[in-house]
């Protein structure tokens, strides 16, 4: 196991009492080949959980093993190198841009680690190409490009660190439908071509249905479901997770209620379409 | 990151419920009274000072704020207080009075290295212990003890020899000033403990109202204060986010050298700068969309009414002040 959570808990210290953001989390994540969606209501501890993945936060109880580094440790140890291996893209990453030109900004990440320092320009250009930023923009100020482009540049800034595991906190938030598809296709491509593990927080169940392989559902700081997405959507306690069904399943349910079509589990819109064709033949 | 802005603690005590304007005025009256007590060693002045001190401690109990919390706020001035105390002890050397304590002291070849050693030890231990204030007092006592202890060595000491004389009046005077500083600090911190920033702002605005007649734009000041206060938590929040985002890009503020830190500060400041401009523009648009015009007369959501308890507070503090003034003139 490359990342392992053992009975992890995280508590915020309030004025009088503690607030438990995470309780008793047990989770195992492989370095390669996983595409995990973390879903749950607002305030269910998703962001807190992903910030543990690259040692931004340290558990107040239990232990995490991140690629061989066990946290929290009694001795003072350096954790910065973990951030090169587990790349974390925050919500609205465009706010983290600061350099005078795009290329320099993307180089900032790799220049901070000795593993990537010598290849920073190479990695930066590679990841900018990957996110679809044209070479003519490299010398442009990151504040003079459109919002969608800014987000791409910011994501390239993480990709340029060449992480083994990519963690994304709502990467599609605030994007238009086309932008959403583009960016999700980009992550999927990275996942398929380089077998990198991708962990993403999302509220969009269509994205979960389309891209994720494994889903972790959080509710009030606890993992209530961890498994394949098909099992999730067919789970009998699905309504207790406070989640929505993806569009094609909502259509199915609607047709079931209005036209009385017999319910069948469909994985995507194509399956729904072929099932409907079958029914109405 | 855990920065607390303001130290308001919610409650429903007498002090919490007081009208902020009255609270401000009463506090000023009370602090003026504390400073009006002359530092002389007549019995009635000592009694007056102790009474005022006891009143301020009673106010703490009245407010329902834990005494420990208030005293914690005093930690910041421990150094200042100790310093004044010692200066008082040294400078008050009245003639014709028998000293309480008369110790020979030496500052020379042996004691100076020892003092430096003590200083190093102080800073070394300070980082590793919790009871820092107590440790500070031990340190201060240590300074004088070393200077005294070297005179016990039966040999001729070079350097600066002097007598450490503590006179009763010096001790009293030092204690007097000590009480005064604590009382003022306690009262001032009680104001911030029991008044929310909004109330404080409202109170200040309405106290500044007369300034409008001489064309001072008080409404602008109060709007500026409230907007500043309002945006501090937002900005801290954003700073925290950016810091985490840049840390994720390898700019760890805890693990880097000074040289790296400079570059990392820029990585933090520029985004925060950009965000604050964005937020400011959004906020001003939102305010104008809701009809805000600078300088226009505005109504208030909270209208403060001066009630019985407010008159009482005002009466008591003015009574204290007047009594002290009369006492000062009469005696």
Automatic annotation (TrEMBL), chain A:
Record's subcellular location: Cell membrane
Membrane topology type: Peripheral membrane protein
Pfam families found in the cross-reference section: ABC_tran
Keywords, in A-Z order: ATP-binding, Cell membrane, Membrane, Nucleotide-binding, Translocase, Transport
Keyword set includes Transport: yes
Residue intervals of the ABC transporter domain: 3-245
Main location: membrane
Keyword Endoplasmic reticulum included in the entry's annotation: no
NCBIfam families hit by this protein: ECF_ATPase_2
Role according to the record: ATP-binding (A) component of a common energy-coupling factor (ECF) ABC-transporter complex.
Name assigned to this protein: Energy-coupling factor transporter ATP-binding protein EcfA2
Source organism: Acholeplasma oculi
UniProt gene name: cbiO1
Automatic annotation (TrEMBL), chain B:
Localization, UniProt: Membrane
The organism's place on the tree of life at top rank: Bacteria
Entry keyword Cell wall biogenesis/degradation: no
Topology in membrane: Multi-pass membrane protein
GO terms under cellular component: plasma membrane
KW Transmembrane helix (keyword) present: yes
Chief location category: membrane
Keywords assigned: Membrane, Transmembrane, Transmembrane helix
Transmembrane regions: 21-40, 46-65, 77-95, 107-125, 137-157, 177-198, 311-330
First and last residue of the signal peptide: none
PANTHER family listed in its UniProt record: PROTEIN ABCI12, CHLOROPLASTIC
Protein name: Cobalt ABC transporter, permease CbiQ
Native species: Acholeplasma oculi
Gene: cbiQ
């Amino acid at each position: 196991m490359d990342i392992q959570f053992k009975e992890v808990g995280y508590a915020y210290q309030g004025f009088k009492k503690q607030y438990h953001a995470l309780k008793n989390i047990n989770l195992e994540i492989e370095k390669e080949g996983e595409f995990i969606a973390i879903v749950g209501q607002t305030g269910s501890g998703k962001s807190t959980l992903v910030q543990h993945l690259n040692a931004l936060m340290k558990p107040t109880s239990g232990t995490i093993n991140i690629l061989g580094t066990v946290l929290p440790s009694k001795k003072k140890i350096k954790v910065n190198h973990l951030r090169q291996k587990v790349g974390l893209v925050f919500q609205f990453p465009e706010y983290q841009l600061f350099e005078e030109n795009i290329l320099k900004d993307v180089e900032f990440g790799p220049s901070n680690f000795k593993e990537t320092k010598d290849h920073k320009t190479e990695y930066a250009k590679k990841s900018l190409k990957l996110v679809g930023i044209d070479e003519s923009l490299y010398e442009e100020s990151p504040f003079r490009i459109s919002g969608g482009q800014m987000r791409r540049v910011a994501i390239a800034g993480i990709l340029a660190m060449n992480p083994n595991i990519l963690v994304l906190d709502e990467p599609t938030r605030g994007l238009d439908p086309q932008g959403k598809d583009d960016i999700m296709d980009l992550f999927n491509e990275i996942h398929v071509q380089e077998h990198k593990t991708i962990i993403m927080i999302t509220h969009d169940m269509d994205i979960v249905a389309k891209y994720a392989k494994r889903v972790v559902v959080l509710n009030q700081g606890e993992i209530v479901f961890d498994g394949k997405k098909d099992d999730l959507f067919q789970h009998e306690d699905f309504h207790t997770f406070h989640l929505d069904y993806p569009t094609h399943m909502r259509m199915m349910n609607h047709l079931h209620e209005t036209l009385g079509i017999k319910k069948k589990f469909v994985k995507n819109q194509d399956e729904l379409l072929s099932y409907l064709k079958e029914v109405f033949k | 990151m855990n920065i607390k802005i303001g130290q308001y603690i919610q409650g429903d005590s007498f002090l919490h419920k007081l009208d902020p304007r009255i609270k401000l005025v009463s506090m000023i009256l009370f602090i003026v009274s504390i400073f009006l007590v002359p530092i002389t060693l007549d019995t009635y002045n000592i009694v007056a000072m102790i009474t005022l001190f006891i009143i301020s401690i009673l106010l703490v109990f009245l407010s329902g704020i834990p005494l420990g919390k208030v005293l914690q706020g005093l930690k910041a001035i421990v150094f200042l207080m100790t310093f004044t105390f010692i200066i008082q002890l040294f400078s008050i050397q009245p003639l014709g009075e028998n000293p309480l304590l008369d110790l020979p002291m030496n500052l020379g070849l042996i004691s100076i290295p020892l003092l430096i050693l003590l200083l190093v030890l102080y800073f070394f231990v300070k980082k590793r212990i919790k009871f820092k204030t107590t440790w500070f007092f031990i340190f201060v006592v240590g300074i004088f003890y070393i200077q005294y202890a070297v005179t016990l060595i039966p040999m001729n000491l070079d350097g600066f020899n002097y007598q450490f004389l503590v006179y009763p009046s010096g001790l009293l005077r030092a204690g007097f000033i000590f009480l005064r500083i604590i009382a003022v600090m306690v009262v001032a911190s009680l104001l911030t403990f029991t008044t929310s920033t909004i109330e404080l702002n409202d109170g200040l605005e309405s106290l500044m109202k007369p300034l409008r007649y001489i064309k001072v734009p008080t409404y602008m000041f109060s709007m500026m204060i409230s907007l500043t206060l309002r945006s501090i938590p937002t900005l801290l929040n954003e700073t925290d986010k950016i810091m985490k985002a840049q840390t994720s890009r390898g700019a760890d503020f805890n693990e880097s050298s000074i040289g790296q830190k400079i570059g990392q500060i820029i990585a933090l400041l520029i985004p925060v700068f950009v965000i604050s401009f964005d937020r400011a523009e959004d906020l001003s648009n939102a305010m104008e969309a809701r009809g805000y015009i600078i300088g226009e007369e505005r109504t208030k959501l909270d209208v403060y009414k001066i009630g019985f308890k407010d008159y009482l507070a005002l009466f008591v503090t003015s009574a204290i002040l007047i009594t002290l003034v009369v006492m000062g003139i009469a005696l």
